[in-house]
């Protein structure tokens, strides 16, 4: 063997030199390009779908759209309070059918076109005249939520009637909206990025076609992917899908040029990978800090929490005979130790929920105290119920983290143990979140007990309790004329004080009925780099990057 | 030679037909559907029904299959449910990233694996051999996501030598005419961009190379051990050939045949491993797109990806077969 010794050594040397070179040759890699300009890199979980605001309803699309475009009315940073934006002030007629908006003057879109009442009405008319695929519930979700239907009903699932009637450019800087029916949620709804005012020229130049292509819907128009023009603090620069989306400061923004020169959205799907990217200084911020990562993020930066504007609940399907028994529902409400769960499995700041809407939402009934944890009382209620077969399926989603439920399995395990303690037999049922879980619970109504929740889109109680109970949905199968009557009345009522009373009353009825047990209002966490300031977390996840500053 | 290639290409047809039936049936048999995937949390039963009608999911299965096949032949897999762009366009844009990554991983696996395997064989039975053998066992068994996490923790977070994610520094500007980022920098005369792309390639390539590297080490070791005991090696030594000549002309060349086969087969592992590696490194290649596609039940993407990967796999193995002839004149491609 000796004869080969030399060759062996050479081979070994080559291999180790190769490894060494690979490891050391890269020490210069962390330089971050230009040091002069202020660039803010946000680690997103995904690319936006498109930057045509009217076609999307997901958070990643909205986050980018929110920086480029503006709406007539906006939210005061960090709150759900409606404040002026492209409209400096507005007047609502007594019958609630006419909204007159006075618009800001001398504002231009990013493509140089003037912003005026004509442009506003162009956008509203575009949405109202959506046809075919544009009318499906995914594409124009928020239009349908706030305004109902369209000029013509092309799609069976689209609402038959529309609250919208017309938009009139009364003067250059006065736009008047005429409604067919009053909608009390209109102003709160108009803050949504889905109602962003885009440059009519950009819309026409880019094109907004949607096509049914093979098995799916394609955004074939160039508006929102190549041509993008709003009035907001940042302008669209480029988009390399999967890699980065770049925005640059709008030098002529009406409130002055923002502090940041550039924003880069970097899609990193894996939350742990986002955390490591923040630790390595490659990104300046990300959403979805896991409870286990809080300390690691604090070591290199800051953790900020959004105000709780969501609710997580244990739903009870009224199709299930056992759950029709009020005593059983009450027993479940007393059996669940919600505080213990929150202490063990939620980050600090999570609050026990007693109603299906968060405390900061008007319409919340302050006199409701909640069902206290009392296993003895639960056992007694079970005995009184007369039910013998206490077997229940308990559904929870697998491999998913939601803002109101970072770890569904932990919630299930804790609650299942609570329920077994008072005599129930729990059969676990778990499937992946999308589409199986949502399909099973929301469409097919297969759940018996199930875990679900909701993040508020805008500040109106109808967005919470209305979504759950105004109509009979497969998940709850709740048909109660009194509750549903109140919620419908609440939506139609235009007097704010009267509305508030109606929803407080409805919340009391829902609390008494127990169609489910709300258990948490969670505060979703964001991780920021040390040198980031001015990031104002928003309850509805709409954060103004124009307020963000970056040092160094 | 030509006839061999033609025959192998013809063999592709039944393979692909079979695969297309399997793929089509498998995707449709999954619970839930694309309509639910599209609509997500805010889905109503009516909206689901409407989308299914629009997508043709309510038509008979065979009709859907014939349509699917007709389009697949024209490489038209429809539009991705995630981005709304045609699948072919999405794949074409992302393929350079995956090829770049796979080549880098293969280079690491071969350049490190063959010497180490050879070394283990030459030091058979020593501590070095044991370290290499157990090390390669570790390489096969450590999950990629865990290895990726560790690599990033050490080389990116602690030492700060290499980036954690992506294909290029997002703050830097670079043009990408070819989509191969390392090459793009050279083409556009932006060498720092090439360097930047290369640094982004190293950690994912090491993670992706871990399994093929381990397999190549073990295969080379076994193969070299076999050859070392052949009579012709003893004869070569006995007639006084230089050690280097014996190694090059007799040992290495003869032991490379099975190793080449394994390398060809490992290409499949690389392409499959890219799905996970690209996801944890946010590396925008077809693998990550496929992983996202699985979560979103993006039928068109899953189908397109698997068909394209299957074709590449068959083609790579055909090339490996052709290489046999070069390595061993006794093997006739007939």
Plain-language structure description:
The complex is a heterodimer of chains A (552) and B (334). By secondary structure, chain A is α+β, with helices and mostly antiparallel strands. Chain A contains 17 helices and 22 strands. Chain A has a seven-stranded mixed β-sheet with strand order 10-11-12-1-13-20-14, sandwiched between helices. A five-stranded mixed β-sheet of chain A has the order 17-16-18-15-19. In chain A, strands 4-5-7-6 form a four-stranded antiparallel β-sheet, covered by helices on one side. In chain A, 51% of the residues are buried. In chain B, α10 packs across α11 (243-280). The model of chain B has no long low-confidence stretch (mean pLDDT 82). Chains A and B meet through α1, β8, β9, β12 and α7 of A and α2, α3, α5, α7 and α9 of B.
What is the topology?
The complex is a heterodimer of chains A (552) and B (334).
Chain A: H1 5-24, E1 39-44, H2 59-68, E2 73-75, E3 82-84, E4 87-92, E5 98-103, H3 117-128, H4 141-147, E6 164-171, E7 174-179, H5 186-190, H6 200-206, E8 210-213, E9 216-219, E10 234-240, E11 244-249, E12 262-267, H7 271-279, E13 285-287, H8 294-300, E14 301-305, E15 310-316, H9 321-324, H10 326-335, H11 338-345, H12 375-385, E16 391-398, H13 408-421, E17 425-432, H14 433-443, E18 449-455, H15 461-470, H16 481-492, H17 496-513, E19 516-520, E20 525-529, E21 532-533, E22 549-550
Parallel strand pairs in A: 1-12, 1-13, 16-17, 16-18
Antiparallel strand pairs in A: 2-3, 4-5, 5-7, 6-7, 8-9, 10-11, 11-12, 13-20, 14-20, 15-18, 15-19, 21-22
Helix pairs in contact in A: 10-12, 11-13, 15-16, 16-17
Chain B: H1 2-29, H2 34-39, H3 45-55, H4 61-73, H5 87-122, H6 127-141, H7 144-158, H8 181-187, H9 191-228, H10 231-238, H11 243-280, H12 286-295, H13 299-327
